[in-house]
Each structure stands twice: as structure tokens, then as C-alpha cells.
Amino acid sequence: MADLAIDPRMELNPPLVQGGMTYSDVTDKISSIVEGKAPKRWYIGMAVAVPLALLLFACLGYLVATGIGVWGNNSPVGWGWDITNFVWWIGIGHAGTLISAILFLFRQKWRTSINRAAEAMTLFAVACAAIYPLFHTGRPWRAAYWLFPLPNEYLHMWQNFRSPLMWDVFAVSTYGTVSALFWFVGLIPDLATLRDRATTPLRKKIYGLLSLGWRGSATQWRHYELAYLLLAGLSTPLVLSVHSIVSFDFATSLLPGWHTTIFPPYFVAGAVFSGFAMVVTLMTLARWIYGLENLITMKHLENMCKVMLATGMIVGFAYGTEFFIAWYSANQYERFIFLNRAFGPYWWAYWSMIACNVVAPQFFWFQRFRTSIPAMFILSIFINIGMWFERFVIIATSLHRDFLPSSWGYFRPTWVDIGTYVGTIGLFLTLFLLFLRFLPAIAISEVKGVLHQQVSAGQAAPVHGGSH
């Protein structure tokens, strides 16, 4: 690729490809995941994920048949787990585009072994997130029409484009579309490799169709690099805009606890924070299931831990800023909301959020934790739990105590709330495991580019074998 001309002296140390791997070793190792039999650990993961995904469909079927009253939403908490989980899943999907697009533009070579899986994670997270606003309409087969900018010929009505909920539709759909294109374009050279290695006519036809006639000529590589660069440029502002627009659901209201200008950067930092935590969780599992220690190295995981530490500090600073502004504003309602968050009925959720999002990342200051697989796996799960609590705290504590004490209430999730959320996790894991099984989870061509630089810099064994 074009960026292989970087000075080898600028390479990261230690090398990003280990074990003295050659070009052929890289191709064989990554392709063998798709071509060989799935390990027992993969079947164990599917045995856990598929029943949870079926639970999702059962809960959604019950919801459609009965109505959204089966959720725990009430007055005054009109938004509950549905919007909490929507924002949480959108945040999870942020790291994929950031790793792929922004780090690609900055020529960060440590992205190469993790970007493909992170991009796939983005698509699956957006798919899970889209379930909530769709079914929140109650009758999606009728109400979903209003999510699209189409005029109603009978009522002469258009959508309310002044509503931030309408902005969500455009932001999330654009983000999902561009992320899917970016992911697929990056797959094309590797799909051609699987096509050339295919041993059955069916596999050859499927991968041949998906690879779009790729032959690896200089002209095709030039067009590929240009398309990849353009899509990276388009994706980069989306990383910043999509979660900013999601935050407008709250920030453009007049409700104390929501009506604040800090939400856009605060939500973006939190999204990157939770997204990287999910990438660490999934990459450590993929590394363990398929034995990818030489490709997903400790350097990749350690760099992601550093990003989590940085974004975790930003999120912690945002928490403190919110309390300071609530005090400095001298607004009694704003002050009450934040004191109620910390010491009211939902104190347990607030302090769980602080423990997971502020305290837990501090362990990453120490290299011992940044280079320990069990430690980073456990901490990444804690961070994702904490980020879920953050979204729940923002929604529930701002709604459950209204301006009138006579209107105060308390939100409790129902079994349908819990089942739907657990089911989306099952759907996400099912899609991710299927991706690992049938598509190259690591970018073969990009890893070879890094290996080429390491050989030039004398950091890896001499290269033998062809590209396939």
C-alpha cells in the first residue's frame, strides 16, 4: 500500500507482528480461521449467544403483541432502559470507526490487527441500537414510516425536522452506511485471497462475487487506496458528529440535568471510552479462541488500554465539571438534580458509575495491568458496565423527580426490559462470532504491510513465501 514508504526507524518497538512470521504465515494463519474447522471454544460461545439472541426475538414479539406498556416506563420516567440501551450501543460502535479511520489518517500502524474486527463490531452495535427506537414506536410497521423524510400524501404532513430524535435517524443511518462501506472496501483484497485459496466451487463463487473481480493489479491498488482514504476522511467527522447528535436528545431540552452544553464532547469521549473497552473485551476473547498471540500482540492491547486511560480521565473530568456548573449556576433545580444523583434513591447507580468509569481505569497507569490479559479483560468489562450506568443515571435521575414533588416516581425495569437488553447482547455476540468464522477477522494485506516495515527495520525474521 502507499503508506509503506514510512521510514522504518519510525516503527514501534516491540514489533507488531511477532514469532518470526513470514508473508505466507500471516496469510495461512488468518485464512485458516475461515477455511478450517471451528474450535470447541467457538461452539461454546455460540451455545451461549444464540439462546440469548432468541430471547431478544421472543421479547420483541411479546412487546409487539402486547404494547410498550410491558416496559417499565412510567410517569414521570417516560424514557427508561430503551433509550439507555440505545445510547449505550451507539457508544460501543464508536471505537471501530475511530480505530479504522482516524488512526489510519494518522498512520498509526498498531491499528492493523484490530481494525477489521472493530469495524465489524461497529456494524453489529449499530444494528442492536436501531432496535430500540424502532420498537419504541409501538407499531413499527406503521410508525417507522415517520422516521424517513417522505411526505404524507394523505395528511400533507412532513416529519418534525426540528426534533433531535429526527436528527438521530439521519446521524445513525449515515454512520452505519459509511461504516459498512468502509468495512467492506477494506475486506476486498482479503476476500480475493480467500477466493484464490478456495477448494470448493461454492466457496470460490461466493468469495469471487464478494471480491468484485479483484486481481491485485497496480491500478486496482491505486483505486483501492484512494477509495479507502476518502471513506476514512468521510468517517472521521462522523465519529465526532453522531454521538454529539445523540446527546442533543437531552441537551436541547429544558430539563435540569440535561440542558447543558457539555454533553456533545462528554458523550463523544464516553463513546470512545466504552467502544475501546468493548474492543479489548472482544479481542482478548478472539485471541484466546483462535490463538492469535502473534498477530494481536500485547502492544496492540496495551495501546488500547492507554486510550481507555486517556478517555476515562476526560469522562471523570466531565463528571466533576457537571457538579461545578450545577453549583456555579446558582440554579436550585440544577443543584438538586446533581445532589439527588449522588445521594438520592439512585445513589447506588451513580457510585457504581464512578467506581467503574473513574476508579477502574486508573489501574492502567501501571504497566503491570496494561500487559495482563486477565486484568485488562476484567477492567474492560467494568468500564462497559460503568458506561451503561452513566447513561442510566443521566436518564433516570433527571426524570424520576420532577419540579412537583407530587409527580415524583421511581423506575424499575420489567422482565421484558431485562430480556430485551440481554437479548441484544446475545445478538451482538452471535453476529461477531459468525463474522470471526466466515470472514477474515484480521486485515491480511495491512498486517503484511507492517511486517514488510519490520523486516526492513530488522525487527522480524526474513520473509519467505508468496503473498498467498
Q: How is the secondary structure organized here?
A:
Elements: H1 23-35, H2 40-66, H3 81-92, H4 94-105, H5 115-136, H6 140-143, H7 164-197, H8 201-210, H9 218-251, H10 263-290, H11 298-328, H12 332-343, H13 347-359, H14 367-370, H15 373-399, H16 415-438, H17 444-456
Low-confidence stretches: 1-12, 462-468
The average pLDDT score comes to 86
User: Would you count the extended β strands for me?
Assistant: 0
Number of helical regions: 17
- The best one-word shape is globular
Report the top-level CATH class: Mainly Alpha
Structural class call reads mainly alpha
Number of domains: 1
Query: Which fold does the CATH topology refer to?
Result: Formate dehydrogenase/DMSO reductase fold
Largest sheet: none
What is the straight-line distance between the termini? 16 Å
> How large, in whole angstroms, is the Cα Rg?
23 Å
Order of helices and strands: HHHHHHHHHHHHHHHHH
The helix content is 55-70%
CATH architecture tag: Up-down Bundle
Percentage of residues in strands: under 5%
